Amino acid sequence: MLGTAEHSIELVVAMAHHGPKLKRLSQLAADYPEHEVSLLSEDPAHSVAIQEESELLGIWVDIDPGQGRSGIPLNQRERIQATSTAAGSRLRGLHFYEGDVRDDDPARRAAACEPLFRGLCDLANHLDKNRGPAGTEGRLSLLTSGTPTFEAALDWSGFDDRDHRISPGTVVYWDSTSQAFGIPGFS
Questions:
Q1: Cβ of 180: how many Cβ atoms within 10 Å?
Q2: CATH code of the domain covering residue 125
């Protein structure tokens, strides 16, 4: 994909790679320096290890919205701050997967996501006050969403004043999960 791209791509590997996988990702970034390659971190020592492995890899701090899937729990601000600080100039922003909100009704999904999104923005605002300029106008970028919740994220106005991106994995494929949640497919 990176080798055939006509324009610069931002590739975010939504995993916290270590050891040989981190080395491979570092090599990928070195092989394609015209693209931005980043990965997730949820530990200060890991953020440091990424920087020691490569000058090219970006870091997104992985935040757990309370679903216990991955990331630092949203309420552990000290650990989040330490991981963000350890990422230094490689910090790209906060990654937040709330895709386990899987109510069949889109309005109820959006209502369930709203306090999660508010908590993420409160955290980002707190972190912005405690760090130097980075990201869009010195503010952290936010990367959210799974297939069931990306529409709620797009519609939530609280993200309007931030660099916010969505990253639902199946948007490329449109699968049975999309159909089950009433998300229209591509013609």
A1: 12
A2: 3.20.20.10
